[in-house]
Design goal:
- This protein has about 220 residues and is of the alpha/beta class.
- The chain has one domain: Rossmann fold (3-Layer(aba) Sandwich), CATH 3.40.50.
- It is built from nine helices and five strands; from the N terminus they run αβαβααβαααβαβα.
- The chain has a five-stranded parallel sheet, sandwiched between helices.
- β4, α8 and β5 form a beta-alpha-beta unit.
- The chain is globular and about 50 Å long.
- The chain starts with a helix and ends in a 14-residue tail after the last helix.
Amino acid sequence: MTDIIKSFSCEKSCDCEVKSHDCELIVLTGGPGAGKTAVLESVKKDLCEHITIMPEAASIVFGGGFWRLSSISAQMASQRAIFHIQREMENLVKEEKEWGLGLCDRGSLDGLAYWKGSEDQFWKTFNTNLESEYSRYKAVIHLRSPSAQNGYNHENPIRIESAEEAMLIDNRIHDIWKNHPSYIMVSSQESFLDKLALAYKSIKANVPDCCGGHFEIS
């Protein structure tokens, strides 16, 4: 594994003998402030190099200077950009054959929660359907957004939603993903560490068998 590939991988070395992996994808989703970034930063330290964590497509788009305007046309344009970046990142990870598992910071259907047109227009715009998008992912882990009283904040500079708006988006995300055959919901907890532990367990349960000997699922 080259240094550049290692920089995109989780941190623990792996002694499994599998040299080429057929990568499966897991979505870690949730409304604004749900804790996805904290969870992914934590698991990166504990999972092995044959697991990769993809960056959030929206952060690539808006962090890279894409204009974030309030008009309907601008919001639709940003969602088209996000969808295609998400899709190509997933394709890249699968085609490299370096990783057995890819953790997606949101999935392709998260954009539907932010989409300003009709659902039918969404499917036509991206030439896809619900079943096709579900089939791309082995599992969907949904971290629920906290309320303002339970820790919602604006520490992420890209996060612009109020606590109320975050809950509405979170509910839409639930409606979009809830029928996935391996949908796992992680509710907000009084302690974020408890929420982290629940998410951690769900991720570890989906680690490839060849890499699963590095830890025990507690």
